[in-house]
């Protein structure tokens, strides 16, 4: 299956009985009751999206004036007729400008008990009947302020396509009475050990400078663009962004628009300025940047990669909350499709110990592992994951010898690997294994056994990257090898958890059996998705982590199918704080595998600091737990106990940054999880009786910060627990001072070194058990 909906769903959508016509003014209005889109049909130009609204905004309808320079809903580029404006790289495509409305279909499934949703398809074609039939598909799940969209191309005649947009959205700046200059842009930078470094700037401080459109009319050729190449989809930038319309929070008309490209390969998004207005376009691979083109004309249609977008009233944080709900909807739908919804829900309560980070560093041996197993069991871990090296029989060949995935014959003594597995199980934990299923080491015997067709090739030779060959999952032999490996490890060792890593990439793609190198890469990426679905359907109870040298492939093609995401390989807890604090922008809280690698030799402040990173995400435990004394073990247990409380409520919580966007290099960072019943659908009265959580890290600088928490808030420290000072006697409680009805001042107890605390925040009547470190606000609700 592709990243897109089942073909059966698209077939059902485009059934004759679902055909709809524009109204007398050429308008089509569609939505799920929360998000609404308005399209304009004109016989002299392509279909445009002239209006949109979402949660908290006045609902648009067919009578709106529409954006003055609304752009076509599809950009389509072909070498036969590239651009309608040679100054523009992707916008104003000549083939796209020739499209005209053919028909439209709507399918309302909002009453469906398994996956309530509504769908729209708008079909266009060149008025002369030339070129492909272009279908824009829009999906929206019930309860969301989100839309998922992609483009389908079909042609009976040969037709080369070099770029096609999945989303080309004109933002409702005119309707909201905001000028382009008021917009604020948010984008994420991501590189190895520096993931989730989110940036923000006024539109005019980016490449989209003011050129005075009154004197220089027309669409600007400037654009703010971000892209990914090859298969580290988040190896440089996030496939997500946000446009905030401007103004102050709460003003009528303020809105935010966020999007994410859901693909595990090459992509590009851009923000451009219309005349007047703003548009956001999103693509999978295209020719200029990714060496991609596809030749239509066969019986098969081509579908672009899917893109989700949300629109809502409020600022960027509200947009992130809405995207969080959309990501949960995507994950649930995929789990349902793979037949593992119950297993997926059960897995979200598990805590994993992994022996790698700041511990064994890929050198597992029986004498090292057995004490770690005992330590992990003492603190209550559910899974013990043996990371890289368990298959290495050459004491250092674990990198370029990978591929057979047989246990080492010289690392586990007389008990052998099976003995280590039995020891883990006898301590009441499930067995986890690190696996890199998409590569074969150049020195592995399998490199000679598998045919060249099983590997990425270019120019007549296999592609080698740092001593590895990259499997091409279009190949039946490649997939069969990967499937047999997973099946065997589960059958032989009862593996309950896999850490799928991904440390090398194949470059632009393959030139074997494909129209273009980029198309070969796209087909491989989709084959990986399909293979994962097969594995998950076959082994629904096995939990799988997504790792790619940390978070170099943290996209929602992967994360809709997998359970947890390694957020980084960063081994410095002070830097990791920024990575953990920014993860909620692009990854679900319940999927954020944040390392917590406390050690005995750390002082209390440092141990609490590193443990704090994991509590609000998925606490990914590591470190030499076996060397810890009772006091340090108790601190770890306290962190895990609090984490389990968070896990029980996490599926109802959304990310929250009361100290604004995390400054990656900043002295203070604050990240929390809050109840948002207006977004999640949770009962409002019940949510007011529950707890929000907030982690605050002080890394340097002044000893205090001010936080606006809202009226009626009560904040108290919960980690380290002030009621258990013996767990970390040198990590004294932080001081909380009421400043005004909405603001508190937080003062760190130790200004000489980095420190962190986790707080519980409640609203309404003062909670029972409040201590003298509580700050109580005037009660007016959340």
Question: What are its keywords?
Answer:
782 residues, alpha+beta, Beta-galactosidase, Chain A, domain 5, TIM Barrel, Immunoglobulin-like, 3 domains, eight-stranded parallel barrel, hydrolase
Descriptive notes:
It contains 16 helices and 43 strands. β28 and β29 form a beta hairpin. The strands form nine sheets. Strands 1, 6, 7, 8, 9, 12, 13, 15, 16, 20 and 21 form an eleven-stranded antiparallel β-sheet that branches. An eight-stranded parallel β-barrel has the order 22-23-24-30-31-32-33-34, surrounded by six helices. Strands 35-36-37-42-39-43 form a six-stranded antiparallel β-sheet. It has three domains: 331 residues, Beta-galactosidase, Chain A, domain 5 (Distorted Sandwich), CATH 2.70.98; 270 residues, Aldolase class I (TIM Barrel, Alpha-Beta Barrel), CATH 3.20.20; 123 residues, Sandwich (Immunoglobulin-like). The C terminus is likely disordered. Helix content is 22%, strand content 30%. It is an alpha+beta fold. α7 runs parallel beside α8. It holds the Pfam family Melibiase. Keywords: Glycosidase, Hydrolase. One of its GO terms (biological process) is carbohydrate catabolic process. InterPro entries: Aldolase_TIM, Alpga-gal_N_sf, Alpha-glycosidase_related, GH, Glyco_hydro_36.
């Amino acid at each position: 299956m592709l990243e897109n909906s089942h073909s059966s769903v698209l077939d059902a959508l485009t059934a004759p009985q679902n055909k709809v016509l524009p109204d007398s003014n050429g308008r089509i209005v569609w939505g799920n009751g929360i998000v609404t889109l308005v399209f304009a049909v004109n016989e002299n130009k392509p279909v445009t999206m002239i209006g949109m609204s979402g949660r908290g905004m006045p609902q648009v309808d067919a009578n709106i004036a529409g954006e003055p320079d609304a752009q076509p809903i599809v950009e389509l580029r072909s070498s036969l007729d590239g651009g309608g404006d040679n100054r523009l790289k992707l916008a104003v495509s000549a083939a796209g400008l020739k499209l005209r409305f053919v028909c439209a279909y709507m399918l309302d499934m909002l009453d469906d008990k398994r996956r309530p949703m509504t769908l729209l398809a708008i079909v266009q074609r060149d008025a002369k009947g030339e070129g492909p039939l272009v279908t824009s598909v829009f999906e929206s799940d019930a309860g969301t302020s989100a839309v998922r969209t992609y483009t389908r191309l079909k042609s009976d005649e040969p037709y080369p396509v070099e770029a096609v947009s999945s989303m080309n959205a004109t933002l409702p700046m005119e309707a909201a009475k905001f000028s382009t200059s008021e917009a604020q842009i948010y984008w994420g930078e991501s590189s190895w050990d520096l993931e989730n470094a989110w940036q923000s700037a006024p539109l005019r401080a980016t490449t989209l400078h003011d050129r005075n459109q009154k004197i220089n009319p027309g669409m600007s050729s400037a654009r703010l663009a971000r892209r990914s190449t090859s298969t580290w989809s988040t190896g440089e930038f996030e496939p997500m962004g946000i446009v905030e319309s401007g103004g102050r929070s709460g003003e009528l008309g303020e809105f935010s628009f966020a999007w994410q490209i859901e693909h595990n390969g090459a992509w590009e998004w851009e923000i451009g300025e219309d005349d007047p207005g703003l548009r956001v376009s999103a693509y999978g691979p295209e020719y200029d940047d990714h060496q991609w083109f596809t030749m239509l004309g066969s019986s098969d249609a081509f579908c672009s990669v899917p893109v989700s977008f949300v629109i809502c009233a409020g600022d960027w944080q509200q947009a992130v909350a809405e995207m969080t709900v959309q990501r949960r909807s995507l994950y649930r739908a995929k789990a349902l499709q793979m037949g593992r919804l119950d297993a997926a829900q059960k897995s979200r309560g598990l805590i994993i110990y992994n022996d790698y980070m700041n511990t064994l560093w890929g050198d597992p041996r029986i004498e090292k592992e057995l004490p770690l197993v005992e330590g992990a069991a003492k603190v209550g871990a559910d899974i013990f994951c043996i990371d890289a090296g368990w298959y290495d029989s050459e004491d250092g060949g674990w990198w370029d010898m990978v591929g057979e995935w047989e246990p080492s014959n010289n690392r586990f003594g007389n008990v052998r690997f099976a003995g280590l597995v039995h020891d883990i199980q006898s301590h009441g934990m499930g067995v986890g294994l690190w696996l890199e299923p998409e590569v074969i080491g150049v020195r592995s015997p399998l490199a000679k056994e598998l045919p060249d067709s099983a590997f990425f090739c270019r120019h007549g030779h296999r592609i080698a990257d740092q001593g590895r060959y990259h499997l091409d999952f279009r190949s039946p032999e490649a997939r069969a090898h990967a499937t047999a490996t997973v099946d065997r490890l589960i059958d032989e060792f009862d593996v309950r958890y896999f850490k799928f890593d991904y440390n090398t990439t194949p470059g632009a793609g393959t030139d074997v059996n494909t129209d273009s190198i980029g198309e070969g890469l796209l087909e491989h990426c989709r084959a990986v998705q399909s293979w994962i679905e097969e594995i998950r359907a076959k082994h629904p109870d096995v939990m799988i982590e997504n790792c790619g040298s940390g978070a170099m492939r943290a996209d929602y093609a992967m994360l809709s199918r997998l359970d947890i995401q390694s957020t980084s390989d960063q081994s410095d807890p002070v830097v990791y704080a920024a990575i953990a604090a920014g993860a909620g922008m692009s990854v679900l809280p319940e999927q954020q595998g944040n390392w917590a690698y406390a050690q005995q030799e750390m002082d209390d402040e440092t141990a609490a600091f590193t443990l704090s990173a994991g509590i609000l995400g998925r606490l990914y435990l590591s470190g030499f737990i076996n060397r810890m004394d009772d006091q340090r073990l108790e601190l770890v247990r306290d962190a895990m106990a609090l984490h389990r409380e968070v896990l029980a409520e996490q599926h109802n919580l959304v990310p929250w940054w009361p100290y604004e966007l995390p400054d990656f290099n900043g002295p203070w960072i604050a990240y929390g999880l809050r109840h948002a019943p207006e977004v999640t659908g949770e009962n409002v009265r019940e949510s007011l009786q529950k707890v929000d959580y907030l982690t605050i890290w002080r890394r340097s600088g002044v000893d205090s910060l001010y936080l606006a928490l809202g009226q009626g808030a009560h904040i108290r420290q919960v980690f380290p627990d002030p009621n258990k000072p013996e767990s970390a006697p040198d990590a004294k409680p932080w001081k909380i001072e009421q400043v005004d009805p909405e603001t508190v001042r937080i003062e760190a107890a130790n200004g000489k070194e980095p420190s962190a605390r986790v707080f519980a925040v409640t609203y309404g009547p003062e909670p029972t058990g409040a201590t003298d470190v509580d700050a109580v606000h005037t009660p007016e609700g959340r």
